[in-house]
Design a protein that fits this description.
The complex is a heterodimer. Chain A contains four helices and six strands, in the order αβββαβαβαβ. Chain A is an alpha+beta fold. Chain A has one domain. Classes of the chains: A alpha+beta, B alpha/beta. At the A-B interface, α1, β1, α2, β4 and α3 of A face β1, α1 and β5 of B.
């Protein structure tokens, strides 16, 4: 990753901008949402491989900063919602796409299923992925 | 399976809050199928998206709007060995790829 940052620095003009946009694990919230209301039903459990990935990314960018390749100008977190029509679709997605990084515990699974089943007709299920965006300036 | 990603368009809002893409030459690392690319590419002078996933790049190329054919290009490349000359781009976007 550090080598990639070095390459990006090479192809950027002087004072060029690097935008680092990525999800960061932080026990992402699970919710059942309808037009009328939003109900929190649990939190995602972070798995070691996902946490290790985040740590490696953080170390790489810290190294680039230490090397004076880039200077941090701005940073914020924001939610990026993945939304499904039903809990089973969410569970299927997590099992197929995210199983190495996160998992949904039994309590959250149960709470999401029952809240959705008893909820409004337009209820959907969503996970709020914690996104980090940082603007770096080439030094 | 029906899935919606970022229906609130938070990602687009933050991306534009953090960078002014108008008239810029942009490199997107990890462009995948171009989901993020389409959020800003119309404003740029030129956009190049790179990824290692050939299938995703094929989808991105197929789904590229006709008015972006001249300004947006996709290429299979490794971020550790970028096939570009030095000082080619004004902005680089690491799209979920660090």
């Amino acid at each position: 990753m550090v080598h990639a940052l070095s390459e990006i620095r090479r192809v950027l003009v002087p004072n060029g901008i690097l935008i680092d946009l990525r999800p960061v694990l932080n026990h992402w919230p699970v919710e059942v949402k309808s037009e009328r209301e939003t109900c929190a039903t649990g939190r995602i459990r972070d798995l070691p491989l996902g946490l290790a990935d985040d740590e490696a990314a953080n170390k790489s960018i810290a190294q680039a900063q230490q090397n004076r390749w880039f200077a941090r100008e701005a940073e914020e977190f924001f939610p990026f919602y993945y939304s499904w029509d039903s809990p089973s679709e969410m569970e299927e997605w997590i099992a197929e796409e995210w199983h190495e990084f996160i998992e949904l515990d039994e309590e959250s699974t149960r709470a999401t299923r029952s809240t959705w089943a008893l909820g409004d007709a337009d209820s959907a299920v969503r996970v709020g992925v914690n996104m980090l965006i940082t603007r770096w300036r080439k030094e | 399976m029906t899935i919606q990603k970022d229906a609130e368009r938070n990602e687009t809002e933050y991306l534009h809050r953090f960078a002014d893409f108008v008239g810029k030459r942009v490199l997107e690392v990890g462009c995948g199928e171009g989901r993020l690319t389409w959020q800003y590419a119309k404003e740029t002078r030129q956009t190049v998206g790179i990824d290692l996933d050939q299938d995703a790049l094929r989808v991105a190329t197929i789904e590229r709007p006709s008015d972006l054919k001249d300004g947006v290009h996709f290429s299979r490349a490794m971020s550790e060995q970028l096939p570009f000359s030095k000082e080619t781009f004004d902005i680089a976007v690491l799209a979920w790829s660090l």
